[in-house]
Amino acid sequence: xxxxxxxxxxxxxxxxxxxxxxxxxxxxxxxxxxxxxxxxxxxxxxxxxxxxxxxxxxxxxxxxxxxxxxxxxxxxxxxxxxxxxxxxxxxxxxxxxxxxxxxxxxxxxxxxxxxxxxxxxxxxxxxxxxxxxxxxxxxxxxxxxxxxxxxxxxxxxxxxxxxxxxxxxxxxxxxxxxxxxxxxxxxxxxxxxxxxxxxxxxxxxxxxxxxxxxxxxxxxxxxxxxxxxxxxxxxxxxxxxxxxxxxxxxxxxxxxxxxxxxxxxxxxxxxxxxxxxxxxxxxxxxxxxxxxxxxxxxxxxxxxxxxxxxxxxxxxxxxxxxxxxxxxxxxxxxxxxxxxxxxxxxxxxxxxxxxxxxxxxxxxxxxxxxxxxxxxxxxxxxxxxxxxxxxxxxxxxxxxxxxxxxxxxxxxxxxxxxxxxxxxxxxxxxxxxxxxxxxxxxxxxxxxxxxxxxxxxxxxxxxxxxxxxxxxxxxxxxxxxxxxx
Length: 485
Description:
Helix content: 25-40%
Shape: globular
Radius of gyration: 21 Å
C-alpha cells in the first residue's frame, strides 16, 4: 500500500509540475499588431518558440521540465543541458551536484558547424586530488567539476546567457524542490549513514525520517551558492572568493581540497568513439568516460546479432575493465578484446544519472553525471549547501555512458543516456540499437539493472520533426517532454 501511495504522489507531483511548466506555452493568445506583426514572448522567455521546439528527457521530472522551458525560450540543446544539469544538482543530489561531474556528447548538424557535424565529448569527470593528510581527513572528496564542465559545453554550443540557465535551479533550491520518486528511492537506500551528517539530516529528513515523495525540501545555502555562480561567474567557484570558501568547507567536511587543486581541475574536449551502422554514424563517450567505450563494445556485438544481449553485456565490461587496467587506444581495444577476456570483471560501480536534449535545429546533447557514490561523501560542504563527491582514488569510477547517432554529418538520428551501474554500457548500446532499428524510443526494456533515456527522429532532424519521439525508461521515475510550443 505504501508503495502505491508513493507512486501516486509522484504522478500527482509530476502532473502538477507539467501543468505549471506548460501553462504559458499555448494558453495565451498574443494579439497581432498591424505595424509589427504577430507579437509573442521575447527570446529568453518560455513560449518564444512557436511550433516544434525539441525535447528533454531526464531521470528526474523537474529537471526535464526545466530543460523544456529553456528550449521553449529559444535555447539550444546545450542551453537545455545546462539547465537540466544544474537542476539535477538540486532535485537529484544523490547522483548529480556541484561537487561532482560527468561527461556530455554534443552534436550540431552541418559540416560548417563548430564540430563539423561530428559528435564530440566534453569530459569533466570528478578528479582525485592528492591523498589528504592530517587529522579529520576521513572522507576524501573529489575536485568538483560540474560547473566548469557545463560552462565549457555552453561556451561552445550555448545561445542564451549562462546565468539565465542557472536561475531555475537557484529558485528551486530557495523555494523548495519536490521530492520525486527517483530521489526518494535513493534517499531511503542510504538514509542511515547519510543522516550522520547534521546538515544532510536537516535538509533531507522530516523529524528524523527520510523525505516522502511529494514533500518539498528547501536548500537555502545551495541557492546562495548558485546565486554567486550566476552573478560572479563560474571562475569564482575555482579561483575567487567562492573557491576559498570551498577549500575551507572541504577541510571541515573531512575531504580537504586545496586552492591549487581546485584551480587546476580543468575539463576538456575529446573526439567521440565512432562506429558505423549502415548510413548512420554513432558516437560514444570516450575514456576516461569509459562507459561510452563499454557501450561501443556492446554495440558492435548487437550490430551482428541484436538478440545477443548477454554476450554484449559481457564484452562491454571486458573492454572497460581492460582499459582501466592498461589503458590503450579505444579503436584497438574494440578490435581486439573479446567478451571472455581475462581480468574482465569490474567491481560494483557507483550510480549515475543521464539525460538528453534536442533542439529544433537538430542539435543534441546526451550527458551522464555522477557523485562517484550515492550522495558522494555523504557530507554537505558547510555553508555552501552542496554534497562533496567521493574521490575516485578511494572508490571505483562510474561507467558514464551516452551516445548520439547522426547521418551524413547533417542530420540527427538518436540520443541515448544509459545508467544502471555496471549495466550502463549495455543499456546504452541496446537502447541505441532499438532506436535505430525501430524508430521508437525504448520499444522494449534494456537489460536489468540498466535504464535508458532516449530521443529518436526516425526521419532525421532537421527536416522530419514529426518523426521524432522521446521516452524515459518505463521502469524509472523519469520524464520525457517536448513537442510544440
